[in-house]
Design brief:
The complex is a heterodimer of chains A (159) and B (588). Chain A is an alpha/beta fold and 159 residues long. Chain A is built from 5 helices and 5 strands. Chain B is 43% helix and 21% strand. Classes of the chains: A alpha/beta (159), B alpha+beta (588). Chains A and B meet through α1 of A and α8 of B.
């Protein structure tokens, strides 16, 4: 089970995404605008695993601001940006700034809710992998620093 | 002036002995007279004072008993007495009119005005032209007042109760005085025409309603050129010359009388961009006579000039004068008249250019707005469709909640579809908002009824209608204007607290406008937002495209009006719409 925040100004969309992801066993919070999303992100303890945010809400930059807040809180939170027609450029901008992926809301003939759920699973895998890697790196770092301490001690002994 | 220039009526011999002393005294007297006249002339434009002094001095130099100045009216073919001097004038005598004719016994003045030749008569009793105003008049001098181009504008008459009271010398001096008077009159006339043109220019620069503007031009042309009728044709999109304004018989044909470019005199002017000035239209091979202000045989003078815009000919302005009943004189348009009409036409051209530019600017603004609007509408509709697809999927999913939950989802689908419809409707209104019909509308009754209707459907806000006017007419589109006011009221009721008041009022402004105000008792609009609220997509409300006030502005602009928000923040919003007033249909 992962902790997910869904941010969208359309109430129905918000609710339906929440239902879909809850069916996969996740714990889902929702926010209706940029400001409350940023507040919830900064107050979350522990941080959200995945944040799904609509690109255009209060302003054209709302999605970008939510992304910034999420990465500021936890650099390894995976952010998926949702876009309706005509905002792919903004979504790509989000990718450049560290979003995991973007999903177009209107793809003819595609069940975007399932697509989103799939991307969430992948994002979670990615997050797990990353966290694992970080964990290993930390271990390695500890080992190295332990080794250095040992060898320096040996050197001291030599003198 | 040589003796040959002078017409001597009656007794032609010089009645006086030549006397050098008298001549010298006469010269001194005439110099002092010119001094008096020129003093008055420098205090111009008091034309009455000038006429009085000129007549008095003329009497003094010539030792005449009475004098008068009469003015030619070429429309009626008559001379009317304008100013008199000497004793015995009664209102009846002052209202005497002389015919512009060579017929005997109708008055020397008519003969002089027609021929332009000064007239000296030593014995009126035997004069063939003389018409007796006073029984004691025995000799007379009548000289023409000539304006620019030698056109006779009036006559100056001096009479005496002695036989052979005047000589050639008197005649010369009186004529010289008359020339000064004529010059002053022409100048005054030019001054008046100039004032008219300036006034018209000012009007053309401020007026945005093209039809009203063209009507003004036609009226002004008739007045300035002393014409009998004037018509204005404009080139429409399909390269046809369409009658847009006229005063007399053709007025009924506005919008219907159409020339091809090159057809008839009017079409020729449009094709070549050059004027046509004629006395006898029927003798010109280009003449077609399709649409005429008067029957062709009654047209005595015709003048048409092109209306030139910055890049091309935009139309034709033409004036006509009636043929005088008396065939002995004519009243053609002069080259001065032509220059004046040109000036008028160029002002019209500039005004049309300006209106066109304004329309193009508004259009460009709209096109830019369209682009953004399309993107926004696509985005909003995309979002709604995303929700709808999700809802359908949810309703189909076997494990989806049943019962109440299911009903709630259906309701959400319904309301989402409704929102989409409203969005599309708003879109359509914006697209159509600049296309308006123009009909005479009486706003007081229209808005009283409309506001009354709305106030019944709004429960927690009071909507009032106020006016001191009985009626207020404009030209426009009643449905679009109702939408405007409806939008403003709806907006106000959204922002006004429960129990608040929204007031719609109509006033007339002294500048020929109708002012509609929609004010409320809400918080009002902060100064920094006052401009932005009319921009498309500016909205502080969650729903819709944010086109409401942009649509209102677009409709008002299409009516040639303006809208601004002039309330003080904290005291409520106040939207002021100013529309050009129109004459009531029954006064047209």
């Amino acid at each position: 089970m992962a902790r997910i925040l869904v941010v969208d100004d359309e109430e129905l969309a918000r609710e339906l995404i929440k239902r879909r992801l809850e069916r996969d066993g996740h714990k889902v919070d929702t926010a209706a605008d940029e400001a409350s999303a940023i507040r919830m992100i900064s107050e979350a303890e522990p941080s959200y695993d995945v944040v799904i945010t609509d690109m255009v809400m209060d302003t054209d930059q709302s999605g970008l601001n939510v992304l910034k807040a999420a990465l500021l809180r936890d650099i390894f939170t995976e952010v998926i940006v949702l876009t309706a027609y005509g905002n792919v450029a903004n979504a790509v901008e989000c990718m450049k700034r560290g979003a995991y992926d973007y999903v177009e809301k209107n793809i003819p003939g595609v069940d975007v809710y399932d697509l989103l759920a799939m991307k969430v699973e992948r994002a979670l895998e990615e997050r797990r992998d990353t966290l694992m890697t970080v964990h290993r790196l930390r271990l390695a770092e500890q080992l190295i620093s332990a080794g250095e301490t040992k060898s320096s001690r040996t050197t001291q002994d030599d003198t | 002036m040589s003796r040959e220039d002078t017409r001597n009526g009656g007794q032609t011999e010089n009645g006086k002995d030549f006397d050098y002393t008298e001549t010298a005294v006469g010269t001194i007297a005439s110099i002092s007279s010119f001094h008096s006249v020129s003093r008055v002339l420098s205090a111009f434009p008091n034309i009455d004072e000038l006429m009085r002094v000129a007549l008095e001095e003329a009497l003094r130099i010539s030792r005449g008993k009475r004098g008068f100045i009469a003015l030619v009216n070429y429309h009626t073919g008559e001379l009317t007495i304008g100013w008199t001097a000497g004793c015995g004038w009664t209102p009846e005598k002052r209202s005497t009119k002389f015919k512009l004719t060579r017929e005997p016994g109708k008055g020397i003045e008519g003969y002089v005005a027609l021929t332009g030749v000064p007239y000296l008569c030593g014995n009126l009793e035997s004069d063939q032209y003389h018409y007796s105003l006073f029984d004691d008049s025995l000799s007379r001098i009548v000289v023409p007042l000539k304006g620019r181009g030698g056109k006779v504008i009036g006559t100056l008459s001096i009479s005496s109760d002695h036989y052979n009271a005047f000589d050639e010398n008197d005649l010369r001096i009186i004529q010289a005085l008359a020339d000064v008077v004529a010059l002053a009159m022409s100048t005054a006339d030019y001054y008046a025409r100039e004032q008219k043109l300036i006034e018209l220019g000012r009007l053309l620069a401020s007026q945005t309603n093209i039809d009203a503007l063209l009507d003004e031009v036609v009226g002004a042309a008739i007045e300035i050129l002393q014409a009998d009728d004037c018509s204005l044709f404009l080139i429409e999109e399909d390269s046809k010359l369409v009658l847009r304004a006229s005063k007399g018989a053709l007025k009924e044909q506005v919008g219907k009388a159409i020339y091809r470019i090159g057809e008839g005199l009017t079409g020729w002017v449009a094709l070549h961009g050059e004027p046509i000035r004629l006395s006898d239209v029927r003798s010109d091979p280009r003449w077609k006579g399709r649409y005429t202000e008067l029957p062709a045989e009654e047209i005595g003078a015709f003048l048409a000039v092109p209306v030139m815009g910055q890049r091309s000919c935009k139309g034709v302005l033409r004036v006509i004068r009636k043929r005088p009943q008396d065939a002995s004189y004519s009243n053609p348009f002069t080259s001065d008249d032509q220059n004046l009409l040109y000036m008028l036409a160029s002002q019209v051209g500039a005004a049309l250019d300006r209106v066109e530019l304004q329309e193009r600017l508004i259009e460009a603004e709209r096109m830019a707005a369209f682009g953004e609007m399309a993107a926004r509408a696509a985005h909003m509709l995309g979002n709604k469709i995303f929700s709808l697809k999700g809802a359908l999927k949810e309703l189909r999913t076997p494990q989806a909640a049943l019962g109440e939950e299911r009903e709630r989802l259906y309701a959400a689908v319904d309301s989402t579809i409704k929102e989409m419809e409203e969005l599309l409707q708003e879109f359509r209104y914006f697209v159509k908002s600049a296309r308006i019909e123009r009909n005479p509308i009486e706003l007081v009754s229209l808005l009283r009824e409309f506001v009354g209707h709305i106030s019944h459907s709004v429960s927690d806000v009071n909507v009032h209608f106020e006016t001191h006017l009985d009626e207020a007419w404009i030209e426009g589109d009643a449905e679009r204007l109702k939408r405007c006011i409806g939008e403003l009221i709806e907006n106000a009721t959204y922002f006004v607290p429960r129990g608040g008041v929204v007031t719609v009022s109509i006033e007339s402004s002294p500048h020929g406008s109708v002012v509609i105000t929609v004010s409320d008792t809400g918080r009002g609009i902060p100064d920094e937002s006052k401009e932005k609220i009319f921009e498309p997509f500016y909205s502080t409300r969650a729903q819709g495209l944010g086109l409401g006030l942009a649509i209102v502005k677009s409709i008002v602009q299409a009516h040639g009006g303006t809208i601004e928000e002039s309330g003080r923040y904290g005291e409520g919003a106040k939207f002021v719409i100013t529309l050009p007033a129109a004459k009531p249909p029954h006064q047209r």
